[in-house]
Amino acid sequence: MGRLLKKITLSFILSTNIIAGVLLVGSMLLMGLDPRNWSISGFPSLLFPYIALINVVYIFFWLVIRPRWSFFSLVVLLLCGRSISSVLPFRISTRFDPKPVQQQLRVMT
After folding, report:
1. Can you tell me the distance from the alpha carbon of 83 to that of 32, in angstroms, rounded to the nearest whole number?
2. Which pTM does this prediction carry?
3. 3 state SS of 99
4. Which residues contact 60 (CB under 8 A, 6 or more apart)?
5. What digits encode the pLDDT tens for the residues 15-70?
6. 68, 43 in Cβ contact below 8 A?
7. Which of 5, 7, 71, 90 qualifies as a FRET site for 100, CA 20 to 30 Å off?
């Protein structure tokens, strides 16, 4: 009975991993559409960072349980790498000039 439960649990987790991967790729593709023309395309784009985080969690989970299965999430994240870097930019800059330059707009996010 324990072996069957383990197999069902791993199958369920693998299924949710595949769904999260498909959702990530789908939301990446929908990010390129103009929401003014197709309004539904904006909603999956809002979920993109969270779905990417879920795929990162799946990578670490599969590395512990079954390392070969982590390649799916890794490939999906690599496919969406450009979109991830545009949504979550990690720019470490040590140079900052406190005096604003003329004709320049500063935005704090």
Report:
1. 10
2. 0.75
3. coil
4. 70
5. 999 999 999 998 888 887 877 887 777 788 888 889 999 999 999 999 999 999 99
6. no
7. 90
